[in-house]
Amino acid sequence: MDIFSTEDQDRIVQTISLAEAQTSGEIRLVIDKKLSEPSAMEAAVRYFRKLNMQQTVQKNGVLIYLATDDHAFAIIGDAGIDKYVGPDFWDETKEQMAVLFRQGDLVQGLIVGIQHIGEQLKTYFPRRADDINELPDDIYFGKN
């Protein structure tokens, strides 16, 4: 998918890796051109399951879903992180990202969101010596 340059993809993946280096939490990013479900949240839920995000040991996976052509996105966190952060956290994160998206800067919007999520994950799920990276850090590009 030609939405992001190789350099942009590298910056995003590096941001995910840096955020995860401080936490046992897992962050995944899914990009579609068009919504794959009636809503961005429904698509996020479907990808959350498809990518086995619910199988993290501490239930602390977070998925960011973005449908670029439809200008829609959603963030979903597993039960472990949702127990600590309320819905206001997800709304606040989405608003930080949306400000940059509206300015046409998808990459920086994603980076800001990933960093913000990483800080919360670090607070509630700090990295331990025996932590392993349970899920890939790469961007998952949908089929459309």
From TrEMBL:
<protein>
    <submittedName>
        <fullName>TLP18.3/Psb32/MOLO-1 phosphatase superfamily protein</fullName>
    </submittedName>
</protein>
<dbReference type="Pfam" id="PF04536">
    <property type="entry name" value="TPM_phosphatase"/>
</dbReference>
<dbReference type="InterPro" id="IPR007621">
    <property type="entry name" value="TPM_dom"/>
</dbReference>
<feature type="domain" description="TPM">
    <location>
        <begin position="2"/>
        <end position="119"/>
    </location>
</feature>
